[in-house]
Specification:
By secondary structure, the protein is of the alpha/beta class. It has 8 helices and 5 strands. The two termini are about 15 Å apart.
C-alpha cells in the first residue's frame, strides 16, 4: 500500500481537469493508494480569499475534494514536525535558499516533515521552486539522514495523472 500526501496545489490542479470527478473516484476507491490529510494543508485551502462568488465557490469545492480524498486518514500535527520543518529551513538557508519562513515554503516544509515523521512513501507536488526545488530537496535528505528518518519520494502532478488515468 502506498501512503501519500498531496501538496496543497494538487487539489487545485485536480479540480481543473475535465475528468476531475473520475480522478477523485479513482483516488478514493484505490485501496492500495491512501492519501493522508494534514491540518496545515486544509488550513491553506480554507484560507483562500472569499473576495468573489467564484473564489467562495472554488474554496468550497476544494475543501470538499480534500475531505473526500483524505477521508478518515488524517495525520496529527506536533511540535516535533514543526521543529523538523525548521531544521529543513535552516539548512535550506545555509545552502543559499532565498525564501523566508513566513512564505509558502513554511507549509511545504511542514508537509515534508509530516511525511518524513510518519514514514509516508510519496509526496506529490507541482511546486518546482519551493517544495521540489534543488535546495529544499538537499535539505530534506540531509536533515532526515541526521535525524534517522526516511525521506519520502517526490513525484510531480503529471505522475499522479498518469497513475490515475492508467488504472483499469
Amino acid at each position: 500500500m502506498l501512503r501519500v500526501i498531496f501538496d496543497t496545489n494538487i487539489y487545485g490542479l485536480l479540480i481543473k481537469e475535465k475528468d476531475a470527478n473520475e480522478l477523485e473516484e479513482r483516488i478514493t476507491n484505490d485501496k492500495e493508494f491512501i492519501v493522508y490529510g494534514y491540518k496545515p494543508i486544509r488550513t491553506e485551502i480554507r484560507n483562500i480569499p472569499k473576495v468573489t462568488k467564484l473564489s467562495k465557490k472554488t474554496r468550497v469545492i476544494l475543501l470538499g475534494l480534500y475531505d473526500k480524498i483524505t477521508g478518515n486518514h488524517f495525520l496529527k500535527h506536533s511540535i516535533k514536525i514543526t521543529n523538523l520543518a525548521k531544521k529543513y529551513y535552516d539548512y535550506y538557508r545555509h545552502l543559499g535558499g532565498i525564501y523566508g519562513w513566513d512564505t509558502s515554503i513554511r507549509v511545504d516544509f511542514m508537509i515534508v516533515a509530516c511525511a518524513s515523521y510518519y514514514g509516508l512513501d510519496l509526496v506529490y507536488s507541482s511546486d518546482n521552486k519551493t517544495l521540489l526545488g534543488k535546495h529544499p530537496l538537499k535539505a530534506y535528505r540531509h536533515i532526515n539522514f541526521k535525524e534517522n528518518l526516511r525521506t519520502p519520494n517526490f513525484l510531480k502532478y503529471k505522475d499522479l495523472l498518469e497513475k490515475l488515468r492508467n488504472l483499469i
